[in-house]
Write a structure and sequence with these properties.
Number of helices: 11
CATH topology of the largest domain: BirA Bifunctional Protein, domain 2
Distance between the termini: 87 Å
Largest sheet: 7 strands, mixed
Structural class: alpha+beta
Strand content: 15-25%
Order of helices and strands: HHHHHEEHEHEEHEEEEEHEHH
Shape: elongated
Strand order of the largest sheet: 1-4-5-11-10-7-6
Number of strands: 11
Helix content: 25-40%
Radius of gyration: 40 Å
Number of domains: 2
Length: 349
């Protein structure tokens, strides 16, 4: 038994010297000292020996086991040190090299244009107010003098959350909320995203951006509104921009008008001259004009519902189509690229 024990010890020591990687050492430890290892089996066989031999041999087996365990730990430490030294050579990092940086993104063209408009209105003394994307039916329709049979209140035109809440169809509800909590004079703009059940085409999407403007004070007239519209158009499109007003109807303004500019896709604006529109233009449909926003004098009923006396105060409101104006400014013939995350498109701005 002692001879066999000595032979096992020599075999284990020899095998241990030939191990070069940590994974092999882990397997070797299990094979040697595990439940089915050679030393474990020999230790179990000691129990069958006579008492006078059992004590001496058991002590010898435990000594050899402890010695081998120590050798394995020493071998592990040596292999770990060797692996670390090798990694320091093969995986050296030159800390003097410049770091790798990710390319910086940029603001979306609609955001850039919205901020540009905000700068204009701040310089004109307007305050900026923002509201929730989900509005009450009252503030979105009722307070804006929109009758119950108006087409915009139909589920085919508006996204309803429930019977009393909708995805706002315009930013005008914040005009009402401003008038409810603030006494005139009032000069505010309301930028934000709105939703309508529109089919996607060159000039329509179910989600788009608007910027409402509201001015309430004593003695405000349509002439003040026209002056503001001219200021906005000249600021955005330059002195040569062509603008026209068309009589229209909105429940919350009276009188009302649509604001058009010459088509940015097929009509080139030049000093004193406009090229003829193209019949097949997908933007203006051959008319030569593109509708950008609506405007008008605030309806007296809207003033009353908001707690303002229309016999004392008057005002005007306008709703800028920010997305369409961005297209007009940059000459983008369709709205689809705004939602496609095309890096080549976005890099232009």
């Amino acid at each position: 038994m002692l001879d066999k024990l000595t032979a096992i010890q020599q075999k284990i020591s020899s095998s241990l010297d030939s191990i070069k990687i940590l994974a092999e050492l882990a397997n070797f430890r299990v094979q040697t000292l595990g439940r089915k290892g050679e030393l474990t089996r020999l230790l179990k066989a000691v129990g069958s020996l006579p008492p006078e031999e059992r004590k001496e041999l058991g002590k010898k087996v435990n000594e050899i086991r402890d010695q081998i365990l120590s050798e394995i730990e020493n071998k592990k430490a040596a292999l770990e040190a060797s692996a670390l030294a090798e990694s320091l050579i093969t995986e050296t990092i030159d800390v003097t090299l410049p770091g790798k940086t990710s390319p910086a993104g940029s603001l979306h063209p609609v955001t850039q244009f919205m901020w540009r408009l905000e700068e204009l209105f701040i310089s004109l003394g307007f305050d900026i107010v923002e509201g929730s994307l989900i509005e009450t039916v009252y503030h979105n329709f009722d307070a804006l003098n929109t009758p119950h049979n108006h087409p915009s209140r139909d589920e085919g035109d508006t996204f309803y959350i429930d019977e009393t809440h909708v995805l706002r169809t315009h930013t005008s509800p914040m005009q009402v909320r401003t008038m409810e909590r603030q006494k005139p004079p009032i000069r505010v703009i309301v930028p934000g995203m709105v939703s309508r059940r529109d089919e996607i085409d060159a000039t329509h999407t179910p989600v788009f951006h608007q910027m409402e403007g509201l001015v309430i004070d004593r003695g405000i007239t349509f002439a003040d509104l026209r002056g503001m519209l001219d200021t906005i158009v000249r600021y955005v499109f330059g002195q040569e921009a062509k603008v026209r007003l068309r009589p229209s109807h909105f429940p919350f303004t009276e009188p009302s008008a649509e604001v058009d500019i010459s088509c940015y896709a097929c009509v080139t604006s030049k000093p004193g001259k406009l090229l003829p529109p193209k019949d097949d233009c997908s933007v203006c449909k051959g008319s030569g004009w593109v509708e950008l926003w609506g405007c008008g004098m605030v309806h007296p009923e809207v003033l009353r519902k908001s707690g303002i006396d229309p016999s004392e105060y008057s005002g005007y409101a306008f709703g800028l189509g920010v997305t369409r104006m961005t297209s007009a400014l940059y000459g983008i013939p369709t709205l689809k690229p705004y939602f496609e995350n095309d890096v080549q498109f976005l890099k232009q701005f």
